[in-house]
Amino acid sequence: MQHTYSHRVGARTWHFRNLADLMAKATPARSGDRLAGVMAESAEERVVAQMRLAELPLRAFLSEALIPYEEDEVTRLILDEHDAAAFLAVAHLTVGDFRNWLLSDHATPEVMEA
Fold this sequence. Notes:
- Strands 1-2 form a two-stranded antiparallel sheet.
- A hairpin with a 2-residue loop joins strand 1 (5-9) and strand 2 (12-16).
- It has helices at residues 19-26, 31-36, 43-55, 60-63, 73-80, 84-87, 95-102, 109-113; strands spanning 5-9, 12-16.
- It has one domain (5-113): CATH 2.30.170.30.
- By secondary structure, it is mainly alpha-helical.
- The protein is built from eight helices and two strands.
């Protein structure tokens, strides 16, 4: 399932091609990303990508692999070993909500282990 990755700020709408593009543009500038041509072209684009990423439901990472399943052993391991029952506790969260939850008192070692 392909998601739409766009975010409107004022009169401008920013568009990101896919999850990989959104993730690359949301991360701090790195020389390797610059050489690969995947980094944000401005600090503004990076912040907009971070805002869009914060709104992204965690479930999106299960429906759109950053690296195709057939090409990556780590992707296969993550998807094949995914514990749907354990994920239910946070499945309703966005990336930003998950971050906030991780930083809260609710994310105890016992909850994290479960």
